[in-house]
């Protein structure tokens, strides 16, 4: 029987049992039949709850526990020795399903099938546990909190959702039950469920809602999760996010502020252990204090949505139990099983390579998903060609691959394989007549027999891969213990950064930009600072890369844009002379957002600022790695009347092609050229050459990092128009710049 049919039979047998004991016995019986086992035992909380092939009181509990711990692969049961295998069951009451047979050992494919069965059983039992715990909560805590009737209503609504899940109703129907129930139970005006897109997890869409107008719902389709407001933050941070005053929130969505949303709370939902979306509840008519009762109720329904999603995904994956349907490589589940065989006490040990493509998203966005699928298939073929017989290559999902190299004695033996893969993927791919280049970043981790479990070694390889990404991509890195410590520190900083967005811990500094011939202040550059309550000032170089990596740069960048335009517009209204311009840095992540032109327009309109007074600064590397959509977005922004500048010009991939292709207005000369413009003839020649290039192309030039009069003289003599740096002023607080722009006359002291 095919794995799909076996899982389907198992699913039907377990789901049709209305109570825990019946479902448990059906699971044991069906698993034993599917894998040809003579003995099957299910233990929950260290107690035998069901057994086939021997009586419950005959089960050697200690020996079964040894099997579950991976320390035994055989057991003496009844008439003789049996080969054994197991699958763990998670959830509120953890357990283990153990099978034994007197014949041949279980294969990796059979073990993978058993784990799928265990996952189905876990889902069914988990639904029973959730319902029972909510019933107890409603009856016990409800009485203490004075809302016993509401507690009973909560239980009744949850039971209805549970029945829909148990009967395998379509997931959208379950969503509709949840949104309607939460609106009635909490007395809120709107309830929504958002999920990340399967084809691009960086995007999210509203998939179910009550109290959300169709035009608002349309604006919340395929929005970057990082730009998804409170629901997006809950999804990214995998934590409950509550905002009592939405009107002043820095992550408020224009689509929701336009309909006067007052308060909102979002709770993440999961597939397995991964956050994939959020339930949000909100009010339009008045502000809401999200008390513990409300938080607990939404969390309970979020768990049910998670259960429905995970159950649906399990059924979808039944047909892909062993091999990836696109590439033909091993699935994650089969790869995990083979890793455990190699890394167990009786295994050979080995190395794992975590392979991630560097430019897959660019290809996917530029050439389409069909071309992306073709590329993944070709990559799989090249990776497989680099391996020995007995090695396993797997596609973990998206553009992530993994390789198991069993029997190696250390990482040194894995390095040549990584180098072969890197070299194989550097050669161009022909995608429908288009020559396409990608590269890969590879992390290498090694374990001897019994040293590390499979999940731990995968984490090591994953950390090493990210280190390879950080060090420039198209390379490999070998795992070092220090990477784990650095990763943990990064996790803590990320958590602080998410809280900083909600707590308004950021502020802006403004560095004057000066006309080099007149000394007049013509504009300012807005520079962000993070005032951490415990760490003090966190330098931008520490948190900006993390913000870009996590997507938090989107809400942070929008706040910077709105705050800077509003502040400079206020100064301009008070000034008598020419109006100031304000320069704001834009990252590649922000430029990926389709809504960026609308955000820029909204910020200008709200501030009452002329578009030509706003300058958006882009890095050269952003232009080099651009996609066609990047140029379209820049042209759309340019049509607003906003000016564009290339920041740090001369440090990377300077090319006349970029200056001709992109609608650039300003070149900012990097500080490294300015530093040596007086003492190094070569630096002076290059700097003056850039200035002349700007004049020839009718572009303004701004020199960064001017620190002494000699640099000013050289740059002004070379006809550089503008400059900034500590020679004029350091980045100033709003108050300090206010004093600089509008000095108060100090009366002379009277003579005594």
Write a structural description:
This is EAL domain-containing protein. Pfam families: EAL, GAF_2, GGDEF. The chain is an alpha+beta fold and 752 residues long. 47% of the residues lie in helices and 22% in strands. Strands 19-20-22-23-24-25-26-27 form an eight-stranded mixed beta barrel, surrounded by five helices. Strands 8-7-6-11-10-9 form a six-stranded antiparallel β-sheet. Strands 2-1-5-4-3 form a five-stranded antiparallel β-sheet. A hairpin with a 2-residue loop joins strand 15 and strand 16 (434-436). Helix 4 (108-145) packs antiparallel against helix 10. The longest helix is centred in the first third of the chain and has 38 residues, at 108-145. The termini are far apart. The relative contact order is 0.05.
Which SSEs are present, and which pair or pack?
Layout: H1 3-15, H2 20-34, E1 39-44, E2 47-52, H3 61-68, E3 74-77, E4 80-89, E5 95-101, H4 108-145, H5 148-166, H6 171-186, E6 190-196, E7 203-210, H7 214-219, E8 223-224, H8 229-237, E9 241-243, H9 254-257, E10 263-271, E11 274-283, H10 292-316, H11 332-343, E12 350-357, H12 360-367, H13 369-385, E13 392-397, E14 400-406, H14 411-426, E15 429-431, E16 434-436, E17 440-447, H15 454-470, E18 475-478, H16 481-503, E19 506-515, E20 521-532, E21 536-538, H17 540-550, H18 553-574, E22 581-585, H19 588-591, H20 596-607, E23 614-619, H21 620-624, H22 628-639, E24 643-649, H23 656-661, E25 666-669, H24 671-675, H25 681-696, E26 700-703, H26 709-717, E27 722-723, H27 734-741
Parallel strand pairs: 17-18, 20-22, 22-23, 23-24, 24-25, 25-26, 26-27
Antiparallel strand pairs: 1-2, 1-5, 3-4, 4-5, 6-7, 6-11, 7-8, 9-10, 10-11, 12-14, 12-17, 13-14, 15-16, 19-20, 19-27, 20-21
Helix pairs in contact: 1-2, 1-4, 2-4, 4-5, 4-10, 4-11, 5-6, 5-10, 6-10, 12-13, 15-16, 16-17, 18-20, 20-22
Domain GGDEF: 348-481
Domain EAL: 490-745
Protein name: EAL domain-containing protein
């Amino acid at each position: 029987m095919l794995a799909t049919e076996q899982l389907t039979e198992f699913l039907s047998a377990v789901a049709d049992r209305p109570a825990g004991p019946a479902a448990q016995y059906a699971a044991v019986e069906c698993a034993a039949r599917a894998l040809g086992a003579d003995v099957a035992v299910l233990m929950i909380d260290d107690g035998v709850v069901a057994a086939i092939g021997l009586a419950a009181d005959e089960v050697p509990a200690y020996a079964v526990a040894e099997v579950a711990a991976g320390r035994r692969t055989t057991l003496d049961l009844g008439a003789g020795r049996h080969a054994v295998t197991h699958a763990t069951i998670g959830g509120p009451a953890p357990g283990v399903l153990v099978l034994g047979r007197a014949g041949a050992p279980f294969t990796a494919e059979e073990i993978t099938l058993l784990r799928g069965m265990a996952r189905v059983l876990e889902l069914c039992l988990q639904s029973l546990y959730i319902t029972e715990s909510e019933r107890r909560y409603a009856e016990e805590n409800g009485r203490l909190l004075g809302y016993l009737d509401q507690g009973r209503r909560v239980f009744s609504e949850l039971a209805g959702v549970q029945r829909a899940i148990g009967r395998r109703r379509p997931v959208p129907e379950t969503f509709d039950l949840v949104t309607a129930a939460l609106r009635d139970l909490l007395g809120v005006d709107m309830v929504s469920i958002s999920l990340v897109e399967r084809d691009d997890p960086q995007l999210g869409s509203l998939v179910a809602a009550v109290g959300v107008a169709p035009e608002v719902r349309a604006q919340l389709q395929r929005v970057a999760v990082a730009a998804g407001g409170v629901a997006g933050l809950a999804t990214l941070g995998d934590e409950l996010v509550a905002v009592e005053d939405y009107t002043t929130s820095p992550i408020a969505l224009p689509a929701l502020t336009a309909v006067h949303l007052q308060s909102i709370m979002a709770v993440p939902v999961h597939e397995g252990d991964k956050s994939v979306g959020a339930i949000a509840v909100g009010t339009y008519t008045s502000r809401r204090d999200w008390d513990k009762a409300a938080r607990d109720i939404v969390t309970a329904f979020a768990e049910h949505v998670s259960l429905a999603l995970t159950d649906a995904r399990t059924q979808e994956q039944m047909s892909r139990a062993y091999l990836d349907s696109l590439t033909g490589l091993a699935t994650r589940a089969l790869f995990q099983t083979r890793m455990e065989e190699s890394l167990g006490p009786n295994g050979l040990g080995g190395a794992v390579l975590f392979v991630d493509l560097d430019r897959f998203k660019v290809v996917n966005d530029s050439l389409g998903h069909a071309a992306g699928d073709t590329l993944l298939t070709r990559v799989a073929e090249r990776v497989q060609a680099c391996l020995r017989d007995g090695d396993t290559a797997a596609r973990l999902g998206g553009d992530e691959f993994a390789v198991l190299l069993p029997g190696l004695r250390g990482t040194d033996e894995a390095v040549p394989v990584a180098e072969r893969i890197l070299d194989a993927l550097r050669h161009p791919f022909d995608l429908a007549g288009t020559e396409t280049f990608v590269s890969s970043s590879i992390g290498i981790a090694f374990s001897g027999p019994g040293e590390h479990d499979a999940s731990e070694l995968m984490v090591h390889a994953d950390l090493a891969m990210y280190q390879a990404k950080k060090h420039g991509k198209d390379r490999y890195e070998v795992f070092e213990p220090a990477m784990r410590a650095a990763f943990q520190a990064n996790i803590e900083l990320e958590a602080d950064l998410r809280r900083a967005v909600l707590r308004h811990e950021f502020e802006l500094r403004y560095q004057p930009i000066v006309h080099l011939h007149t000394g007049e202040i013509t504009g300012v550059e807005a520079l962000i600072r993070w005032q951490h309550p415990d760490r003090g000032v966190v330098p931008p170089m520490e948190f900006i890369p993390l913000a870009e990596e996590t997507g938090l740069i989107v809400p942070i960048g929008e706040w910077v844009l709105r705050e800077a335009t509003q502040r400079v517009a206020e100064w301009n209204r008070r000034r008598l002379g020419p109006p100031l311009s304000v320069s704001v840095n834009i990252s590649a992540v922000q430029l990926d957002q389709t809504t960026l032109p609308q955000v820029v327009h909204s910020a200008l309109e709200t501030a009452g600022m002329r578009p030509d007074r706003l300058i958006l600064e882009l890095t050269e590397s952003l232009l080099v790695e651009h996609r066609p959509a990047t140029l379209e977005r820049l042209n759309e922004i340019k049509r607003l009347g906003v000016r564009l500048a290339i920041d740090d010009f001369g440090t990377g991939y300077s090319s006349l092609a970029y200056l001709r292709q992109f609608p650039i207005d300003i070149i900012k000369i990097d500080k490294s050229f300015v530093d040596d413009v007086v003492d190094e003839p070569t630096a002076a020649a290059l700097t003056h050459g850039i200035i002349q290039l700007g004049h020839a192309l009718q572009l303004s030039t701004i020199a960064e990092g001017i620190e002494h009069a000699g640099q000013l003289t050289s740059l002004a003599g070379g006809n550089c128009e503008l400059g900034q740096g500590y020679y004029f002023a350091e980045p100033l607080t709003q108050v300090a710049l206010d004093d600089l722009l509008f000095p108060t006359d100090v009366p002379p002291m009277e003579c005594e």
